[in-house]
Amino acid sequence: MKHYFQCFTSLDLLQLARYYLVGALVNAGGYVAFLVLLHAGMEPKLAASVLYVIGALVSFGLNRKLVFDSAVQIRTSLIRLFIMLLAGYVLNMLMLYVFVDLYTAPAWLIQIISVVLISVLFYLANKFYVHESDNL
């Protein structure tokens, strides 16, 4: 556990800035598409699901090269990515179900909150799991 705290305190701020720049661009485009799909009558969870896959693939490619300069084998990274994305997807769907379906909160607001929360979790997962070799 101590090792992870040492890694966390030595975060590369430039890397973090690049990660959030990539994420901001991908998520801004995805959020606009989400609103367009909602306006066109698509159910919020279906819209989020479709855009989740597209955004994940775009983000993976950009993060792999521009942010983490990953040397991890692509197959290993993709398996790790799938696990990370599945966890994020379940969290996103759970948030939409609980707050939109059960408590009738606006879907647009819950999706913003979800994007912020999941982006933090995904940075950590990308840095320490998806794009990091076994030699942490």
UniProtKB/TrEMBL annotation:
The chain crosses the membrane at residues 20-40, 46-66, 78-99, 105-125. GO terms for biological process: polysaccharide biosynthetic process. The keyword Zinc does not apply. Keywords: Membrane, Transmembrane, Transmembrane helix. It holds the Pfam family GtrA_DPMS_TM. Residues 18-130 form the GtrA/DPMS transmembrane domain. It is found in: Membrane. Its main location: membrane. GO terms for cellular component: plasma membrane. It is a multi-pass membrane protein. It comes from the Bacteria. Belongs to the GtrA family. PANTHER family: PROPHAGE BACTOPRENOL-LINKED GLUCOSE TRANSLOCASE HOMOLOG (PTHR38459). This is GtrA/DPMS transmembrane domain-containing protein. It comes from Pseudomonas fluorescens.
